[in-house]
Amino acid sequence: MTDHERDALHQKEVASLKEIIAQLTQHNRVLQLKVDALVKRLFGKSSEKLDPAQLQMLLEGLEVPPADCPKPAASTVGLDGSEAEQKDHAQPARKKKRSFAQLVASLPVEQIIVDPAEVVADPAAFVCIGSETTRLLDHVPAQFRQQHIIRRKYVRIAQRHLPPVIAPLMRLQERCIASPRLLANVAASRFEMHLPYYRIEQLYARQGLPVPRQTLCGWMGMAHQASRLVIEQIKREVFQGGYVQIDETPVKYQDPEREGICGTGYLWSVHNPVSNIGFMAWHTGRGTACLEQIVPEDYTGLIQCDGYKAYDSFIKQPGRAGNITLAGCMAHARRKFYEAQEEGEDARWVLAQMQALYRIEARMREARAGPLEIRTARQEHSTPILVAIHHRLQSLQASRVHLPRSLTGEAIAYALGQWEKLCVFTRDGRVQIDNNLVENSIRPSAIGKKNWLFMGDAKSGERAATFYTLIANCYRAGINAEAYLTDLFERLPSATTKTVHELTPPRRSSQTPRRCRSSRRGKDRDRAQPRQRMTRRSKSSAGAMGLRLTDTLKTTAPKSHAATLPKAVCSKKLNKSTTTPSCLTPCPKPQAPRQPPSSPKWATNTTKTASSPSCSTRTNPPYPTSTTNAANSPKFRILRSPPFARCAAKPPTATRAGLIAKSPL
């Protein structure tokens, strides 16, 4: 072998080794990013909110300011770029603390009169010239008591030979010693406060009634069987209207076929954002067969879900094909880019674009726009942003800038794979941009899993789904869950298939006594149930409503990717002849959805008041007390547009009864 051949072979080996080193270095980088993401998920904050100031520095490549430099206030740029709006985002209004008088306004008053010992010994020698009042909060522990139901027997005086007349005994089950109020308290403690049965047993024993947990479980099983008709009625109401959201969460349960190992079941949550009602179902799996049992056979319309493949298989089943359309969840796609934002500027650019989409949605919720107005605004303002995101993702995937196994590569693949579903919300004003409403209804079960860890058996999951459904709809309707359950268990023995529809939480909300109303309200009612104004407006009317777009999309993407963006988006004037993906083409105006039942007047104000609180008086206690009367925004802008100020004909007021949102059961 000559020296020339030896040098050539040596150079070839060196080049091969350098290529291997580069591949290993890149692979190591991907693994390190995944480890960092896992550590952040386990020990970091769970919030996915972005700091716009930090996002601007990352996108513009600025250095992090020193520690002694004052930190700018975190804020978000309004669609119109106005300083007033930026100030609103930067400094959200704080809730005013309630005064002591407002806190105890609805509580009864107990007066305790304390006199000096000298006055008690010789009251005739003293005269009262005034008093000093000290206000305290007191707690009266709960107590058990017996309830004797006496049913008198009567006979007619003129017809004593006839059988006696006696009122029927209305109970859920014969020989059950628990009253409806006690059953409701057990259900609320177990499924609203998420207490395990052994803690409820200890609590009752401390109050003087040692009830074994086996008895408590039996009571809940009995109440679950009695409530099945109500659950079936709620399920029928959920699937009316042709649009639902579905999600599932895993729950461990004890499986007798597996010794020492817990099986994994799933709580399926189904929510109708239009009528603001939902239900939960329990299954030991999460396959297509579960969806077949949950979704009625005659259902046609939209199902909004995540990218789980079982949904695609479900809509292709015989009898389902062509009847159901899947809508995607923008929050799932955004979450993957959020986890990949440390890898480079591409993920942060997509996050900024999605942030502009959510700002448009927020403005429409504030304006309480109807479905037709929402659809028009989305077609005009959200579609250009989606076009830009789609072109950018396609160019990144074609250039293979990111490895397929990297976090950014996986996020791009997921978004492009779900793109048709992600754009469905632009064609229907009823559809939400994401699936967060139904995911919020699953949160209470996550709190319960931390307390009771697992279900006792598969049947326990069905009981939990029943009570989670009832309690969640109580929160959506703005009523007290325990008071509703008490009323339900009192009325169920006399209910029939023709009257069971009157026992659902939305129907009972208007008939719930004032003392039973809950002061808790859903946080996402505006989002779950916008005002249904079915006015006919064309796209040109969107500009008259204050929805004009400046047609300017300033990006800070790397110059190497500037050519990948559509010219119509990068230019100052948006070219209307821009090639739009098929998923974003306008469709015929949707029909007006079914109007939900109107909410009761008191749902807008759930604060308890007492015009004449009860008052009791006792004298000379061992302790003194007294009476309580009852009486800097970043320069980085993705999209600019005026706020939706003139979209609503009236100023925003209290909304209709809404969803469970972020509040736990």
Task: Describe this structure as you would to a colleague.
This protein is α/β, with parallel strands linked by helices and 665 residues long. Helix content is 40%, strand content 7%. The strands form 2 sheets. It has a 5-stranded mixed beta sheet, with helices on both faces. The chain is elongated. The termini are far apart. Mean pLDDT is 75; it is low at 61-90, 513-526, 530-579 and 587-665.
Global shape: elongated
Rounded average pLDDT: 75
Order of neighbouring strands in the sheet with most strands: 4-3-2-5-6
SS-derived structural category: alpha/beta
The strand count comes to: 7
Report the sheet-strand fraction: 5-15%
Enumerate the spans where pLDDT stays under 50 for 5 or more consecutive residues.
Answer: 61-90, 513-526, 530-579, 587-665
Helix proportion range: 40-55%
Short précis:
With 665 residues, the chain is of the alpha/beta class. 40% of the residues lie in helices and 7% in strands. It has helices at 3-43, 52-60, 83-90, 100-103, 117-121, 180-191, 197-206, 213-226, 228-238, 288-294, 309-315, 330-339, 345-367, 371-399, 407-417, 419-422, 436-440, 443-452, 458-477, 481-491, 505-508, 525-528, 539-544, 567-570; strands spanning 109-113, 243-254, 262-272, 277-283, 301-304, 324-327, 615-619.
